[in-house]
Specification:
The protein is an alpha/beta fold. The chain folds into three domains: 85 residues, 3-Layer(aba) Sandwich (Rossmann fold), CATH 3.40.50.720; 233 residues, 3-Layer(aba) Sandwich (UDP-N-acetylmuramoyl-L-alanine:D-glutamate ligase); 136 residues, Protein-Tyrosine Phosphatase, Chain A. The protein contains 16 helices and 25 strands. Strands 8-7-11-6-14-15-16 form a seven-stranded mixed β-sheet, with helices on both faces. It has a six-stranded mixed β-sheet with strand order 20-21-25-22-23-24, with helices on both faces. A hairpin with a 2-residue loop joins strand 20 and strand 21. Helix 5 packs across helix 9, helix 5 packs across helix 10 and helix 9 crosses helix 10.
């Protein structure tokens, strides 16, 4: 089968491309911005990439056009596909029909921590010898790739053994073969406004947390809760829901109806932790069943670990074995990733962009560095933050930072006004270069500069390290 993927350089669609290629399909694709690192990864897999969405791509004559949610009506290639009456499908639906069918899907949903928890869970299953497939919205350091078929790859060329089912054109896989997927609540495609995760039909679903986000497509939190309940409705009676007990929104989701075994984590009952986030006992119904000692920081990662352990148990991994795997977990790129040190100043990169994620990330670094200064640089780049929906929460999210530096370029709201409660601790600049200048002017040896964005942040990390190194020369 020949797939041509529209929007191929996004993390999710790039992952689908890698899975399709591994399954033996011919894959080509296009995007408005064909750029590294995804473009390099895809070309290394033998996938031809085209810059832009020209209608002349119809000449490729693929068997199916796989459409990412970055594509909207008015896109010239999509309009040509529609006019010609050609077959097209969304990325999540293609994935469900050609990769996930017949597998034990473990889906990780939530406003925060999806990528990290998905990576943890995949690593725990790998450590247990289950050879999971996975699709993660990042690059787990333990694997070095964002997606793979896993146990399905070995079965691709084999005759169907007893107890297996065909996967809709993909490889034939054992029903028990696990596949771990980051389950995003963002909409599927311009022609399918359901959340992506509704397509995945998990047998094990982690509901990590739930806050308002994606203000560009959801009116309010209740609208997102409705989509989460759609996910709950797809989990079978023999399945398992792993739910954060601390989240009132998730409790409201379950009150709408629940038909599966449900286990809680993070509360007094169910799965809980005793100890610091970097070294803690894992308790199940109050009884110690494992101990985690690892390099990760922050209470949020402690909760992520509990969720991963509870989900892995559903496919037969003992908690003690899961904890041993987590001791070797190396996290995901862009999660408090140290990018370098110059003139005694350490520069970190993190994907945080929602106020709660920013606060959690700063807290994690604060627990690590104690009283040493944290200089937090961030850009409100996500669609939700660009709308200014959560601008009033920014001072709260940055409470534990000593100084804050906001890149305000492209915003339609006044970042300086939003950060006014922070007084002289907050600086706003409309270009990345000015942000760098302001940070370098006040940074001193022993400081920690934390850069937070869901984009490249204009290469701020390299610029900072270069400028700081120049100071020392």
């Amino acid at each position: 089968m020949h797939l041509h993927i529209l929007g191929i350089c996004g993390t999710f669609m790039g992952g689908i491309a890698a899975l399709a290629r591994e399954a033996g399909h011919r894959v080509t694709g296009c995007d408005a911005g064909v750029y590294p690192p995804m473009s390099d990864q895809l070309r290394a897999l033998g996938i031809d990439l085209i810059e832009g969405y020209g209608p002349d791509q119809l000449d490729l004559q693929p068997d199916v056009w796989v459409v990412g949610n970055v594509v909207s009506r008015g896109n010239p290639l999509m309009e040509a596909i529609l006019d010609a009456g050609l077959p097209y499908i969304s990325g999540p639906q293609w994935l469900a029909e050609h990769v996930l069918q017949g597998r034990h899907v473990l889906a990780v949903a939530g406003t925060h921590g999806k990528t990290t928890t998905t990576s943890m869970l995949a690593w725990v299953l790998e450590h247990a010898g289950l050879q999971p497939g996975f699709l993660v919205g990042g690059v787990p350091e333990n694997f070095g790739v964002s997606a793979r078929l896993g146990a399905a790859a070995a079965a691709r060329a084999a005759p169907p053994p007893e107890g297996t089912v065909p996967s809709g054109g993909g490889p034939v896989v054992a029903r028990s073969a696990p596949f771990v997927i980051e389950a995003d609540e963002y909409d599927t495609a311009f022609f399918d406004k359901r959340s992506k995760f509704v397509h995945y039909r998990p047998r094990t679903a982690v509901l990590n947390n739930l806050e308002f986000d994606h203000a560009d497509i959801f009116e309010d939190l209740a609208a997102i809760e409705k989509q989460f309940h759609h996910l709950v409705r797809t989990v079978p009676h023999s399945g398992r829901l792993v739910v954060n007990a601390r989240e009132p929104a998730l409790q409201r989701v379950l009150q709408r109806g629940c038909w599966s075994d449900t286990v809680a984590f993070g509360g007094a009952d169910g799965w809980s932790a005793a100890g610091e986030p970097h070294a803690f006992d894992v308790l199940k119904a109050g009884q110690k069943v494992a101990r985690v000692e690892w390099e990760l920081l922050g209470e949020h990662n402690q909760l992520n670990a509990l969720a991963a352990i509870a989900a892995a148990e559903h496919v037969g991994v003992a908690p003690a074995d899961a904890a041993r795997a987590l001791a070797a977990f190396r996290n995901v790129k862009r999660r408090l990733e140290l990018r370098g040190e110059a003139n005694g100043v350490k520069v970190y990169d993190d994907f945080a962009h929602h106020p709660t994620a920013i606060r959690t990330t700063v807290d994690g670094l604060r627990r690590k560095v104690g009283a040493q200064r944290i200089l937090a640089a961030f850009e409100p780049r996500s669609n939700t933050m660009k709308l200014g929906t959560m601008k009033s929460q920014l001072p709260w999210s940055l409470e534990q930072a000593d100084l804050a530096f906001c890149h305000s370029g492209g915003l339609d709201w006044d970042a300086a006004e939003a950060l006014a409660p922070m007084g002289q601790r907050a600086t706003v600049a409309d270009s990345v270069d000015v942000v760098v200048q302001r940070i370098v002017a006040v940074a001193r040896p022993g400081d920690h500069v934390l850069c937070m964005s869901n984009g490249s942040f204009g290469g701020i990390h390299a610029k900072l390290l270069h400028a700081l190194a120049g100071q020392a020369a």
